[in-house]
Amino acid sequence: MKPWPKFTLIVLYGGYLYVLLKIILFKFGPVDASLLMKQLARAMQHPEMMQNRLEFANLTPFVTIKQNIHRISDLHHMINLLGNVVIFMPNGIFMGLLTKGKALGALIASFAVSLALECSQLLFSMGSFDVDDLILNSFGGLLGYFGYWLMLQLFTDPSSNQGTVRASNRPAT
Question: Is 171 domain-assigned?
């Protein structure tokens, strides 16, 4: 089995980033560039709004994570905790596929995408900045990368320089 063409992976990664934007910034609503422009213009005209939002941001690591763990039986808190990890697992997988890089690269890329989204929430007044989201998203990206790495270890032929998938040892039926 041949690896996917890089162009296909880039298009799929772009689609994944679109879905992230739709979920995190637009809260499952339609992606609306004109709304972003209006929000940006409003933020530029009234910088005190951003300062006010920053005052309510969580800048202390592990505060929200601890709250979510203590209230894990509440569906909202469980989704917030696990959702922030799971939603970034594909990012780690894509980083493994696109860069053939190391775990550190997947971690940095996941952190960078998460930071961009968190700052966008602050800038566009479309959510709240939470440092714990950065931690959970980065962890999710790292988990995704390790899932990718594990699949490589299990299913690629070590004698092949092409990274081809091992043939099954089961007889054909």
Answer: no
pLDDT in tens, 28-56: 999 999 999 999 999 999 999 989 999 99
Q: From CA 89, how far away is CA 146, in angstroms rounded?
A: 9
Residue 98 domain-assigned (yes or no) = yes
Q: What is the DSSP string of 33-91?
A: HHHHHHHHHHHHH-HHHHHHHHHTSB-STTHHHHHHHHTTTSHHHHHHHHHHHHTTHHH
Task: Identify the domain containing residue 148 by its residue range.
Answer: 6-155
Q: Is residue 1 part of a domain?
A: no
Q: How confident is the model at residue 101 (pLDDT cuts 50, 70, 90)?
A: confident
pTM of the model: 0.87
For the cut 80, the answer to whether the pLDDT of residue 167 exceeds it is no
- Identify whether 169 is part of a domain: no
Which residue from 121, 116, 129, 123 is spatially nearest to 44, judged by alpha carbons? 123
Residue 105 neighbours by CB under 8 Å, 6+ apart:
95, 99
- Provide the pLDDT for residue 162: 56
What's the number of domains the chain is made of?
Answer: 1
